[in-house]
Amino acid sequence: MRLPPLPELLGRDPFETARGRLLRTLSVDAAVLRGLRRGAREDDSLRVATYAWALGVAPEGLAQSEVSADQYALAAGLSPDDPHIQFGCGLAHAGGFGRRAMPLAARRGFAAAAKLDPGNLVGHLALTAARFSTGDLASGLRCVDGAAGADRFRPFRSPLGDQILDAAPWLGYSLALLWPQRTGTAVRYALTSLVAAATARRRRDEAPEILARLDSLAGRMLRGCEARADDFLQACGGLQVALAAREATASGAAEQRHAVSEVVREFLEARRKLAKVFEGEARKVLGGAGGTVAAGLVAVLVGLAKSRRRWPPPIPLAVPGRLIAWAGVGLAALGAAAVATPNPVALARRKRVEERLLAAEAELVEAARAKLVVLWEPATT
After folding, report:
1. Fewest beta carbons within 10 Å, which of 48, 96, 158, 238?
2. DSSP labels for 201-268?
3. pTM for the complete prediction?
4. pLDDT tens for residues 167-221?
5. CA dihedral 128, 133, 137, 138 (to 10 degrees)
6. Cα 379 to Cα 81: distance, rounded to the nearest angstrom
7. 169 within 8 A of 229, measured Cβ to Cβ
8. Count of CB atoms within 10 A of residue 172's CB?
9. 325, 303 in Cβ contact below 8 A?
């Protein structure tokens, strides 16, 4: 017989306990999965979807794709009007893009997300990838035409995305997105499938029209992405695919592609400097904690040495050696706890640093976007 964990014995909700641990550590481990599984209720779509999403982002050995798909299907049935859950259900059932035709559940999930959030290109592109996976070029092109009114390119959020961004606005962005690697794969597959469709229909003189649709999608991805590095880099990938397809038919496309690559390289170098700033702030915290621990150890040694003296101290108000030693122990413990355990002071300081880096990253994205728009306009005129 196995007793439940101590928080459950004390009457705490296991889901809330797991959620708090996830927000503190920004990782999905066995304890988080166990709490989410215990706290998931079949009448709460958010809890079911959170458990399904966590199974997909868990490290190897803990992830269970089949269980994740089943749980997401249950959550989608409970919340048919939530585009984030519907898109997650599609991703959970999609499997590998381009290896085989996607299951009907994946196509239904993407179609529902595109219908519920028609202004977001991500849902339309995922549905396009699902249609192209069946080998039906006409259906895929109709999905592209259905995205004509979409002007935003924003990957869907995970069930706890808003809470993760509130806790860690810069460091937790990839965890706040709904399986960003799978979403990026779906977008790339949709764009490269358009290139393949243009190549297949070149003899029927339909290639220019298909390439024009690809150019339109790439341009809207660039203008409609948020000022976040991950979204911006996906949009830049769309530009590269469109320019690579244009190289065979348009003069100057190779130079345009090289210029886009240079802008992206400069952006990555600038963002790498921001990452070094974050590392520098982390080193400051570690250095301060290390100095505190060292000072505590010195106080322990001084206190122990002083406590061995047999004659009275020369100053009447002198601090006893044992008190100095115990104060040193407390100081060393405080320094170690500052970096070994999540605490409100350290979390608040990290959040301030992340907000500053997020603002700097937004400025980098806007500057790079402005350069790419100038480069992209001549390529599509």
Report:
1. 96
2. TGGGT-HHHHHHHHHHHHHHHHHHB-S-HHHHHHHHHHHHHHHHHHTTTSTTHHHHHHHHHHHHHHHH
3. 0.83
4. 999 889 999 999 999 999 999 999 998 888 887 776 567 778 888 888 889 999 9
5. -60
6. 39
7. no
8. 20
9. yes
On whether the CB atoms of residues 94 and 102 are closer than 8 A, the answer is: yes
pLDDT in tens, 103-116: 888 899 999 999 99
Structure tokens at 367: 């500057």
Share of the chain above pLDDT 90, in %: 41
| Residue 78 identity (one-letter amino acid) | L
95 φ/ψ sector (left φ>0, alpha ψ -120 to 50, else beta): left
CA distances from 281 to 23, 173, 175, 314, 353 (A): 20, 19, 21, 44, 8
Residues in a beta bridge with 256: none
What is the DSSP code (8-state) at residue 314? S
Which alpha helices (H) appear in the chain, and where do they start and end?
6-9, 14-25, 30-39, 45-57, 65-78, 83-94, 104-116, 121-133, 137-146, 161-167, 173-176, 180-200, 207-224, 229-246, 253-307, 321-340, 344-380
